[in-house]
Structure formats: C-alpha cells, structure tokens
Amino acid sequence: MRLRQLEYFIAICEYGSFSAAAAQLLVAQPSLSQQIRALEREVGAKLLERGRQGVTLTAAGRVFLPRARSVIDAVEAARRAVADVVGGLDGELHVLTVRSVASGVLPAGIVRWHEKYPATVLRLHDYSHRRDLETAMRAGHGDVAIGPRPRNWDGDIVSLGFESLVVAGRGPYDAERASVAELAAGKWIHFEPEQGMSEVVDWAARSLGFTPRTVARVGQVAASLNLAVQGVGFALIPANAVPPGWERHVRPLEPPLYRELVAYGRGPMMQLVRRFVDLLNSVELPLVSRAGVPADALVC
C-alpha cells in the first residue's frame, strides 16, 4: 500500500469524481483509476462505486476513509516535525566533547546557540580522554564531537582553532616565558593516564626533549592548577582553563605550545549539526586561528 494510493482515494472522496480528482492532482484519469484498483486489490474489497451522481463509498470504503486520513495526517505531522528540527525550531542536539573543552571553550558557543535556537535542547556529554570521545562518537552516542583532531577518521572534520597551552606554577616569574631548562629541572604535577591531558603533557615533554619529574598525579585540570599555584610543581594546562585573576601564575613556553580543536562527525555534517559547527566558527571562542599560531610553535 502506497501513500500515493491513499492520497488518490481521499481526493476522489473529497471532489466526488475520478475526473475532478485527476484534475486537482494533475494526473491522468486512467493512472488514477489504475492506482485505485491496485488499492482495492490489496485491501481485498471494493471501496468506491461509480454512478450517475458521481462516486460513492461502499461499506468498506466508509470504514477505510477515516483510517486513510489518519495515515496521511500522521505522515504530514512527521514531515513537519522533521522540518522543525532541520529549521532549528525543535529537537535535540547531542554534543560529545572532552572535559577541558566543555568548561573552557564551548560555553560562549552554547549561549549563542540557545539565543538563536531557544526551542532546541543541547545535550552535552564530556569524556576524560580523547580516545573515549572517539569511541563514543563511533558508537553513535552523539551527533557531533568537539575535541582534539581524531586519528584515522573517515567523517567530516572542521577545524575550530587552536588553544594555547601554558605552564602554571606559584608565580610571579622573573622570565616571561618558561624555558626548557627550567621545566626539565622542576617538579611536575602530571595527570592520571585515563585523563586526556596526560597524553598532552607526555607529548610536550617529548617534543621539548625532557622527562618530567612527576611528584603528583591528578584527574582534573582545576586540581593540577591549584596544586601548581600552591608551589607543588609545574602543571601544563589550556590557557582557557585559567580563572580571571590567576594570570600571574601562568606563562607560555619557549617555544609556545598549541593544540588544535576540531568538530567531527561520523559522516557528512547536515542539518542541526552543520548549523552548530557554523555557529561555533562564527562566535569568539578562546582559540586562535591557524594564522595566529606563531611560526615556531609546536602543535599537538
């Protein structure tokens, strides 16, 4: 049974004849008659009778008509619901990310999203490590992922910018930038292996050519920053995680370090996902553009 057959049947009932319905539907009358015969064969009963006064419903037709209208109404309601989601008038958007990005990067974009699409619900799911984020995205747990550039990814990837990585300590400092020699000689607050920043600290140490002397391991960026400010050791954190007023406790490295953040999906980005990613690229996030990354910078 096809929707077209139901639409033809309802039109004949509303306009009173095959010819009037065919004219309104812009189809040939023989084609209309053929579809109605096919519908009657499928339901196993004659639905319409032709007479001098036009078309009348049989007993089976009278039972079938309201149900046919219910089907068409349900389909139209489904089409409207989808159109509302596509247009940002309704629906949910599931965004997956890592914890440091959820708190340090996305808030400005989320605020702007709800100003523009107040009827939608944005569901934010954060993960400790980039590999957990990628696994969840591959498993279909979200519509879009925001985080470090994934490895061996087949879907769309859109760069959002680069976050600066800074070293935190007791402060204030004599030198404006942290040197490799200073970092190599100091104590370090590292992250637990299941925390994604542990991978970043290891990458930074390898890239700069030293092995961090770890004296503590933590699971949160905020905890590492607090311990660093108390003088326990150095901590490497995203600059966007530094609270206002704490700038004297952090400084860039020499050479500077950056991490690229991207939006990615399982396939082509469409509908609400594309709108959300475009919006993120239109608001002022605490990131720098590729052109703003210094030539001597190391990029993770």
Describe this structure in words.
There is one protein chain. This protein has three domains: 3-86, Winged helix-like DNA-binding domain superfamily/Winged helix DNA-binding domain (Arc Repressor Mutant, subunit A), CATH 1.10.10; 92-160 and 261-299, Periplasmic binding protein-like II (D-Maltodextrin-Binding Protein, domain 2, 3-Layer(aba) Sandwich), CATH 3.40.190.10; 162-258, D-Maltodextrin-Binding Protein, domain 2. Helices cover 42% and strands 22% of the residues. It has helices spanning 3-15, 18-25, 29-43, 59-86, 99-104, 107-116, 130-138, 180-185, 196-208, 221-229, 271-280; strands at 48-51, 54-57, 92-98, 121-127, 144-148, 157-168, 187-191, 213-218, 235-238, 250-251, 257-264, 298-299. Strands 3, 4, 5, 6, 9, 10, 11 and 12 form an eight-stranded mixed sheet that branches. It has a two-stranded antiparallel ribbon with strand order 1-2. Helix 9 links the parallel strand 7 (187-191) and strand 8 (213-218). The model has no long low-confidence stretch (mean pLDDT 91).
Summarize the SSE layout with pairings.
Layout: H1 3-15, H2 18-25, H3 29-43, E1 48-51, E2 54-57, H4 59-86, E3 92-98, H5 99-104, H6 107-116, E4 121-127, H7 130-138, E5 144-148, E6 157-168, H8 180-185, E7 187-191, H9 196-208, E8 213-218, H10 221-229, E9 235-238, E10 250-251, E11 257-264, H11 271-280, E12 298-299
Parallel strand pairs: 3-4, 3-5, 7-8, 11-12
Antiparallel strand pairs: 1-2, 5-11, 6-9, 6-10, 6-11
